Please model this.
Amino acid sequence: MDTSREKAWSVLTSHVKETVLLNHCRAVEVAMRAYAEKYQSDVAYWGAVGLLHDVDFEKYPEQHPTQAAMLLQPHGYSEAFIADVESHARDWPGERSQLQKTLYAVDELTGFIIACALVRPDKDLANVEVKSVLKKLKDKAFARAVNRETLWAGAEMMGVEMAEHIEFVRAALAKDYQ
Ligand SMILES: [Fe+2]
Model:
């Protein structure tokens, strides 16, 4: 199976046109690649899952993420890969693997951290402090679309401290997300 970034990007952009969603997919990709490296897993595979995790969202917002299979199968992505993509459904019934827990845990956190950078005068991810992200997690008015329970559940699922998780994802985004 071809897990190259080039292929994943071309498949993604054939189904997603909105810049906001493409940026979200790229941010999740960056976080997934960073964690894959940390866990000595397959960086390309984890990155492709991250990049493609919302492939069906623009066309099928109601059925998302269950339409990913239909969109990915014709491109030769395996059943396991498709299951990894679809596993970030909140009500996924199976036991999540480490990759699947990570996807769940970074999906909404990336956007939240980027939102924290964007309210800074310098808008710089490099200067976002963990304590300010933690504070904003408690501020319900800030980035209110982001479900806090999902964020806490994700960190717990992964077995990582929230502060550590935030710092890891922030550093990855500061390095590789433009
Ligand atoms: Fe997502």
